[in-house]
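Hey, quick one: can you model this chain's 3D structure?
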Amino acid sequence: MSDIDTNSIYTQLGLNPPTDTDSKENDELGQAEFLALMTAQLQYQDPLKPMENGDFLGQMAQFGTVSGISDLNTTINTMSASFQSNQALQASTLVGRRVLVPSQTGILNDGASLMGSVELAQPASKIVITIKNAAGQLVNRQELGLQQAGLVDFEWNGLDADGNSLPGGQYQIAAEVYRGTEVSSGSMFTVVDVESVTLGVGGQDLTLSVSGLDDIDMNQVRKIM
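Sure thing. Here's the predicted structure for all 225 residues.
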């Protein structure tokens, strides 16, 4: 195919040829300009050396790729805005709620119970929950019988073994999981209050500020109470 004077084609099509300083920002073509040039290229090609099918299809594929990427970017931006909107909606409903998160530290509030769960990958013949104060002293012990796999809930009313009320604060919780003669540690989860929520940036998850513990990511929440 012979060389084509693109400036001449622009003139014959009634378009202003691009200048060096104004060429659609890096010589980019819009859809209308591309189709016009493609039509002109077919019209002014050398009859003795017509454009090969592969060349023609290659140019069309290049334009389709660029157009597709532009549409994809628009779709992604729309999805991102929708995702941020959903995050804001989640945030507004979580403040003041209680959530179950992975932690061996439980928070006992005055006049309330400390609640949590043990996660079992397999059934257990029994589970023993031990609760210790900040000094590491055992203050309560609960024995749960035969349990199936999954989350096993427990609740402590804040009383020691003698029935005395203990002060609110942090307590360390552990679980001994029995399967016959085998004893292992269970995965602990505790229930905490959500005080505030920070929206994620750049696709990151929500961050929850919970009472008595460090901030946690939304994806760590196992259950919303």
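One thing worth noting: The chain has two domains: 6-92, 98-224.
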